[in-house]
């Protein structure tokens, strides 16, 4: 037997060893699980996408998968019907007017609060933080009646706000800020705490005050955390229907896209085929936000600050 | 004038946790003072109190003639180099060094001049636009030094700045730091746990243990005249031999040998100390010969250390590297009695 043949046999033996099989099996199982989860998430979305291009008659008579085999009959009718409604532009504008401040306000406040919770010493800090984070457990629905009562009593309702020259969404902004704050503060405080204390001490000796440390050191280092927080909060506000409906109502001049889309099927009776197109239309903006912020999720942004 | 004075300084965290106890040191202007001690001995805390990062429980710290107890860190006119370097990771090397000057609202042209100057001294010119993560450990360390230099502070504080470097780089940086100290003509206070750094770099060394200052002196003084058993054991490598002895008049009797002491002492028990280099393969001038049963032989090329038993006591000897010895051998060694140390039962040095 030649040497080469012997090595080949040995490597074959190594390939079929029990460890190799176990490792291989583990990887296969992992892949199956990951792919399985992905499919479970994607199938309904795919169904929605396919349906949005089908004629009404098709949607009403057969499942979306039948459209994937010939004869093909796809149409853009749903999209053109949906886009044809008069106040879509207004709703889109309203959505931005709701989502942007409702993201910026809580993230800004949370960043300041988180800095205090993470790096300033004041009496009762840990208890206040605990109480703050405890608010995460309060169900949103529980707050509607008391908050709305408060808003009405103090004139923070769209009509009144418009009369005194403020945007009609102020109440909604405040509500979203409140709902977003506990989670945002919790996330950022944990992130700030993990920053090395040497950096702050060094900055202190270098002569940087609290605000300088916040803006020149903490903020630039926290871009990944801030970016993910902005995405979370933006998506939540953008997709929210209930909170908007409660605090600003369904009037077309103030209602965001979600309210507008919900009305679509109501006002057109059984026009739910329009919703499939509308759903995809409303997904475009969050997708753009996500993809444009994605590059900030850079790993190891702290690399090189401390240790060798 | 930038002398530094610790005047009865105490640091207490809670009623029964005191990390620095009654600390008194006078550090002269332009001196290179090394604070050395095992980890947890309070040396870093002593430095951080001077930096203004920790409050002072009792006593006074003065920089020059000014009491700084209640002066903010940034107003103490000091600069600190951290063990971790603490570089700002999102800023370029240039911005890292410019940061403390920007905080003082210095003019742009002046900042630029100072940063360029520091980068030239430290050889950082090619890296000014890089971020810290694109630098090696040694380069980062130099940026940290640069950030301290640009401020031309009265006092430099260095907290174990070399402990994240590899052995070779550490040796080089040790020499560079001494040059830097000579060029800058500023007071340096350097904290380390490494006795080699302390011995090679310090004009004077302050040795601490368990929050208490043990001895302050030049490296030579401390090596030749340790004040107590702790200092004697901490400085020097391999560590000093400690042999329990019974003294009477001017002789000390150990389990395996007897030596004549250079002065007469009261009868009693004590610890005899002598460094490994005083035990050699040359016969002793005054008959202090030891019979060692060798356990371990360490050949370092330039030296040969023998570890073994003399009577019932553990002894380390430094012998000629060409001497042929194997573990298990019995060898005759001579003790040079001119540099003996004797310690009382309370661990303080008699001589």
Description:
The complex is a heterodimer of chains A (308) and B (351). Chain A has helices spanning 3-15, 18-52, 56-61, 77-83, 88-119, 125-134, 141-153, 158-163, 170-193, 197-206, 210-221, 223-239, 242-248, 257-267, 272-294. By secondary structure, chain A is mainly α. In chain A, helix 2 (18-52) packs across helix 15, helix 5 packs antiparallel against helix 12 and helix 12 (223-239) packs antiparallel against helix 15. Chain B is α+β, with helices and mostly antiparallel strands. In chain B, strands 6-7-8-3-9-10 form a six-stranded mixed β-sheet, sandwiched between helices. A five-stranded antiparallel β-sheet of chain B has the order 13-17-14-15-16, with no helix packed on it. Chains A and B meet through helix 10 and helix 11 of A and strand 6, helix 2 and helix 4 of B.
Keywords:
heterodimer; A: 308 residues; mainly alpha; flat; B: 351 residues; alpha+beta
Number of strands of chain A: 0
Give the end-to-end Cα distance of chain B, rounded to a whole number of Å.
36 Å
Fraction in beta strands of chain B: 35-45%
Main beta sheet of chain A: none
Mean pLDDT of chain B: 89
Q: Tell me the helix content of chain B.
A: 10-25%
Secondary structural class of chain A: mainly alpha
Task: Please compute the radius of gyration of chain A using only Cα atoms.
Answer: 27 Å
Number of helices of chain A: 15
**Helix-strand sequence of chain A:** HHHHHHHHHHHHHHH
Shape of chain A: flat
Number of DSSP helical runs of chain B = 8
Instruction: Give the uncertain stretches of chain A in residue-range form.
Output: 299-305
- N-to-C CA distance of chain A: 53 Å
Work out the largest interface and the residue count of each chain: A-B, 25 and 34 residues
Q: What fraction, in percent, of the residue positions of chain A are helical? A: over 70%
List unreliable stretches of 5+ residues of chain B.
none
């Amino acid at each position: 037997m030649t040497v080469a043949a012997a090595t080949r046999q040995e490597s074959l033996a190594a390939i079929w060893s029990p460890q190799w099989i176990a490792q291989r099996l583990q990887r296969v199982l992992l892949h199956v699980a990951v792919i399985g989860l992905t499919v479970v998430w994607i199938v309904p979305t795919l169904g929605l996408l396919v349906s949005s291009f089908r004629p009404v008659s098709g949607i009403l008579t057969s499942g979306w998968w039948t459209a994937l085999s010939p004869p093909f009959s796809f149409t853009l009718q749903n999209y053109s019907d949906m886009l044809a409604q008069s106040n879509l532009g207004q709703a889109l504008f309203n959505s931005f007017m709701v989502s942007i401040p409702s993201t910026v306000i809580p993230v800004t406040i949370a960043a300041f609060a988180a800095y205090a919770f993470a790096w300033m010493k004041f009496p009762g800090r840990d208890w206040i933080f605990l109480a703050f984070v405890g608010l995460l457990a309060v169900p949103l629905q529980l707050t509607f009646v008391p908050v709305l009562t408060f808003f009405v009593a103090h004139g923070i309702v769209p009509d009144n706000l418009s009369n005194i020259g403020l945007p009609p969404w102020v109440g909604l902004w405040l509500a979203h800020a409140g709902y977003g704050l506990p989670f945002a503060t919790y996330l950022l405080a944990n992130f700030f705490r993990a920053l090395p204390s040497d950096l702050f001490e060094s900055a202190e000796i270098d002569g940087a005050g609290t605000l300088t440390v916040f803006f020149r050191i903490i903020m630039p280092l926290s871009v990944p955390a801030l970016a993910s927080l902005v995405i979370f909060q933006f998506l939540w506000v953008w997709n929210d229907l209930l909170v908007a409906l409660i605090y600003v109502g369904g009037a077309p001049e103030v209602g965001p896209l979600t309210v507008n889309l919900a009305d679509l099927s109501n006002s057109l009776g059984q026009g739910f085929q329009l919703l499939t197109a509308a759903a995809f239309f409303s997904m475009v903006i969050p997708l753009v936000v996500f993809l444009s912020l994605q590059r900030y999720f850079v790993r190891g942004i702290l690399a090189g600050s401390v240790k060798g | 004038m930038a002398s530094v004075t610790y005047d009865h300084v105490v640091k207490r965290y809670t009623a029964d946790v005191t990390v620095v106890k009654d600390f008194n040191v006078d550090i002269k202007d332009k001196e290179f003072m090394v604070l050395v001690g095992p980890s947890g001995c309070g040396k870093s805390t002593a430095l951080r109190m001077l930096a203004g990062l920790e409050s002072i429980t009792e006593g006074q710290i003065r920089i020059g003639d000014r009491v700084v107890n209640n002066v903010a860190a940034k107003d103490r006119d000091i600069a600190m180099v951290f063990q971790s370097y603490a570089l700002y990771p999102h800023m370029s090397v240039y911005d890292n060094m410019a940061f403390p000057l920007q905080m003082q609202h210095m003019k742009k042209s002046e900042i630029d001049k100072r940063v360029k100057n520091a980068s030239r001294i430290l050889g950082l010119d090619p890296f000014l636009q890089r971020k810290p993560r694109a630098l090696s450990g040694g380069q980062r360390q130099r940026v940290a030094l640069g950030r301290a230099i640009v401020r031309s502070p009265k006092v430099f504080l260095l907290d174990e700045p070399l402990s994240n470097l590899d052995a070779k780089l550490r040796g080089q940086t040790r020499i560079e730091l001494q040059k830097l100290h000579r060029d800058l003509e500023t007071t340096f206070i350097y904290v380390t746990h490494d006795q080699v750094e302390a011995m090679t770099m310090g004009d004077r060394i302050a040795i601490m243990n368990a929050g208490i200052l043990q001895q302050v002196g030049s490296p030579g003084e401390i090596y030749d005249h340790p004040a107590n058993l702790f200092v004697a054991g901490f400085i020097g490598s391999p560590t000093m031999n400690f042999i329990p002895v019974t003294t009477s008049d001017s002789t000390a009797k150990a389990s395996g040998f007897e030596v004549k002491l250079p002065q007469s002492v009261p009868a009693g028990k004590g610890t005899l100390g002598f460094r490994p280099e005083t035990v050699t393969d040359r016969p002793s001038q005054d008959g202090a010969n030891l019979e060692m049963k060798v356990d371990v032989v360490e050949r370092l090329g330039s030296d040969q250390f023998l570890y073994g038993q003399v009577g019932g006591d553990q002894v380390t000897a430094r012998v000629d590297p060409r001497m042929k010895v194997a573990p298990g051998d019995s060898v005759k060694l001579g003790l040079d009695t001119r540099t003996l140390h004797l310690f009382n039962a309370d661990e303080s040095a008699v001589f």
